[in-house]
Structure formats: C-alpha cells, structure tokens
Structure to design on (330 residues):
C-alpha cells in the first residue's frame, strides 16, 4: 500500500505483469490490474495489427480480407477473437468497426490491436489512450491511481449528457453503459449532465476567435472555470482534458504577447501530457519547447501586444492563491 500511495510501482523491478486479461460479467474480456498502478504509469504500448481508413462496408470487407490474409495465423486468430457487435453480413468490417481506435484525434484512419481493443469503456476512465504518430503505436497510461483487482478502462465517448452518451455507445458498440458515471443517483446524474453541458459551453467559448481577439480576459476566465468544472466531474483526474485546456490558455496569452503566463500554462500542459502520453510523446515535447520559448509559437502577438511580458517576468514571491489570481489575470 505504501508504494502505491507514494507513486511507485514495486512490481516493476521484479517483472510481474501489470495486468491480466479476464472475463468480466456483462462485458466480455477486459484488463484487470494485477498490482497497484500509479498515476502516470504506462500500462501498455502496442502496434496495430493493421490500420485502415474509413470506407463503405463492402469495400472495407475486401480490404480487411486482404490485410488479414497477409497476417500470421496467430494474428488472424487475435483479430477474429475480438468482439463483434453485429454478426452477420460483413463480419470483418463489423469486427473492425466495433474495435478500431482512431489513429489520432479526429483521424479517419483506425487501428485494431490484439490487447488494447480488449479494454472496456468508462465515462470516467482511469486510463488514457493515445496514438503516437512518430512511433506508430498506441499507448495506454494510467491517469489516476488504479488498485490491484480494478478494471483498466478508457473512454470511447465522453462528450455530452449521459442519455446521449449511452445512446451512442449502444448504437456504436452494442452495450448499455453502467459505469460509475452513468450509475449515479438521479439527482447526481442531473448534476453531472449540467456539468457536461457547462463543459461543452465553456469549451466552445474558449475556441471562439472573436473572444480570443477582443475578450481575452473572458477566455482566460472560461479556461479557469472549465478546469474547475472538470475537476468535479472527473474526480480531480481530468488529466488529458486539463492539458488541452492549459494549452488553450497558453494560446490566449501568447496571442497578446504575454510570454510570462504563456510559459506557465505551457509547463502545466506539458506535465499533463507526460501523465497521459509519456515524456517522449510528440505533443509533450512540443509543448515543453513552447514553455521554454513561448515566442516561437505561430500566434505570438497575433492579436495584440497589450499583455506584453517576457518569460522572466513570472512572479516568484506570491503564495499559491495569489499566483493563480495573477496567472488567470483576476
């Protein structure tokens, strides 16, 4: 217990597998932690059996048949053993569509993995999946402490209110979500839905170009509000979403010449990406470099120079409350 709470994984040194594959009632197979896993631990790194761009089912079936034929027999069996939400016509396509993960946010190319595709969904996951374009592999990192015996989960869809999420999951993957986020009491679920809608609204406000140009103070306030709401909704472990929000705050500041605050926001985004994607992920390294040289960003002074500062002007004598007020220009 001590090593778990202190942020170390005692089993790494003795090469005990960090997870095992088990049958989970109502879910099929899934990954279970064999030992306590600390936040920021890389659970799994895996190359896809193959990647395929989005296409209509009949053509996808032909492409997948050719890809499968080229695989070793063991890999063929791994693919065919994956869950198929709608057996029948186009069996290869249905297995692929049930299991494929996008190769990057918004990508039309999907990849299928023998182990990662066994990880089940939660609307409040304990792990984060990420495609590394440079290394061409998918990684799974723990974004909160995971106890031995606990299921390892990622999110297939985390936007919008519970009813919309559950309808999407039922339609796309064929299951009724009963995760901790969807199993709240009616009053708690109503509060959660209100937070999800607020998260959507704040996110829309932050990326609104007119706000960035003419109301940057408002954009920063929205960033802080978003971080606070996500902390409540995700039990303080919204690591990937927090990293993105800190990067949004970086862009607001750097567009108005504020290198001091931008460097702090970039550093916070970097630390978030390290937890979710690892030290060497391309995004973590990109944001780290911006923290050191914020003026190198393409949006430097794009909107104005009214907040102009240098990186060396970050105050050193403020307490944590005062520093947050300075940082968000309150």
């Amino acid at each position: 217990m001590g090593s778990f709470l202190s942020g170390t994984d005692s089993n790494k040194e003795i090469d005990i597998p960090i997870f095992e594959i088990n049958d989970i009632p109502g879910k099929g197979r899934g990954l279970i932690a064999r030992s306590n896993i600390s936040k920021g631990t890389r659970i799994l790194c895996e190359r896809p059996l193959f990647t395929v761009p989005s296409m209509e089912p009949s053509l996808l079936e032909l492409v997948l048949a050719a890809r499968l034929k080229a695989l070793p027999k063991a890999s063929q069996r791994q693919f065919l053993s994956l869950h198929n939400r709608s057996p029948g016509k186009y069996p290869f396509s249905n297995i692929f569509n049930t299991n494929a993960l996008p190769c990057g946010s918004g990508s039309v190319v999907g990849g299928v993995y023998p182990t990662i595709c066994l990880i089940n969904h939660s609307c409040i996951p304990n792990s984060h999946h990420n495609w590394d374009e440079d290394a061409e592999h998918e990684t799974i990192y723990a974004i909160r402490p995971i106890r031995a015996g606990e299921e390892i989960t990622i999110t297939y869809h985390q936007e919008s209110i519970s009813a919309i999420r559950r309808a999407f999951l039922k339609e796309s993957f064929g299951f009724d979500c009963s995760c901790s986020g969807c199993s709240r009491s009616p009053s708690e679920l109503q509060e959660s839905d209100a937070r999800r809608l607020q998260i959507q609204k704040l996110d829309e406000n932050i990326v609104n170009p007119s706000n960035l140009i003419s109301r940057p103070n408002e954009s920063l306030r929205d960033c802080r509000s978003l971080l606070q709401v996500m902390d409540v909704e995700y039990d303080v472990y919204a690591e990937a979403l927090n990293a993105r929000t800190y990067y949004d705050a970086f862009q607001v500041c750097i567009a108005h010449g504020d290198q001091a605050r931008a460097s702090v926001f970039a550093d916070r985004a970097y630390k978030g990406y390290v937890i979710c994607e690892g030290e060497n992920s391309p995004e973590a390294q990109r944001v780290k470099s911006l923290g050191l040289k914020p003026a190198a960003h393409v949006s430097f002074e794009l909107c104005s120079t009214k907040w102009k500062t240098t990186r060396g002007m970050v105050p050193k004598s403020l307490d944590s409350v005062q520093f947050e007020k300075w940082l968000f220009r309150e």
The chain has three domains: 2-46+118-173, 50-112, 186-327. Residues 186-206 form the longest helix (21 residues).
